[in-house]
């Protein structure tokens, strides 16, 4: 997919322990690690993360490397926020997840969110003045939070002091990962 050398780059993925869309977590993690990046998966607790396929069918199990409460955002270059309706809806209620996404934005580091993942940014008050995409059901939430929602496979926006990379669904993973790679090599 990419020839980017991401050696020395550090990525943090934030999830709950149940309901993350399998390909929105597994595909980026494997891609980034394959390109040389160090990727940590932070979950609510240290129990295995049970992914889903299409929000309903059991997917692969992923072992988190840390928890949301233990991780320090300052050690990472990019925050990955996968979707999955159940995951994203629960993640935005986790104070530690809201704190982490806020810390990335405040430090001017990239946040990459796919599908329902932008709900975390809405909760953290970080879409005001941003142009982004997501799963279509988030359109009203994004607009009500002051963002401009567009129907595109990937959007990279540098407004408000941090880069935000967003995509709509797992069908957009190639474009999403291309922009993630670009953000990590900029």
Defining traits:
7-stranded mixed sheet; alpha/beta; single chain; 186 residues; 3-stranded mixed sheet
List the helices and strands and how they pair.
Elements: E1 10-14, E2 18-21, H1 22-34, E3 38-43, E4 49-53, E5 57-62, E6 66-67, E7 78-81, H2 85-91, H3 95-106, E8 110-114, H4 118-123, E9 131-132, H5 139-144, E10 148-149, E11 154-157, E12 164-167, H6 173-185
Parallel strand pairs: 1-3, 1-7, 2-4, 3-6, 7-8, 8-12, 9-10
Antiparallel strand pairs: 4-5, 11-12
Written account of the structure:
It is a single chain. The protein is an alpha/beta fold and 186 residues long. It has six helices and twelve strands. A seven-stranded mixed β-sheet has the order 6-3-1-7-8-12-11, sandwiched between helices. The longest helix is centred in the first third of the chain and has 13 residues. The radius of gyration is 14 Å and the shape is globular. The relative contact order is 0.18. The mean pLDDT is 97.
């Amino acid at each position: 997919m990419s020839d980017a050398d991401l050696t020395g780059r550090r990525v943090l993925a934030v999830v709950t322990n149940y309901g993350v869309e399998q390909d929105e977590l597994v595909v980026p993690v494997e891609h980034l690690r394959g390109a040389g990046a160090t990727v940590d998966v932070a979950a609510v607790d240290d129990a295995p993360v049970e992914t889903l396929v299409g929000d309903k069918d059991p997917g692969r199990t992923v072992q988190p490397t840390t928890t949301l409460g233990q991780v320090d955002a300052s050690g990472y270059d990019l925050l990955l926020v996968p979707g999955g309706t159940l995951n994203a809806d629960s993640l935005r209620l986790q104070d530690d997840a809201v704190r982490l996404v806020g810390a990335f934005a405040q430090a001017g580091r990239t946040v990459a969110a796919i599908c329902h993942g932008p709900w975390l940014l809405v909760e953290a008050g970080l879409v005001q003045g941003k142009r982004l995409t997501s799963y279509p059901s988030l359109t009203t939430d994004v607009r009500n939070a002051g963002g401009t929602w567009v129907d595109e496979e990937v959007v990279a926006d540098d407004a408000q002091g941090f880069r935000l990379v967003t995509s709509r669904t797992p069908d957009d993973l190639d474009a999403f990962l291309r922009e993630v790679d670009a953000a990590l090599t900029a």
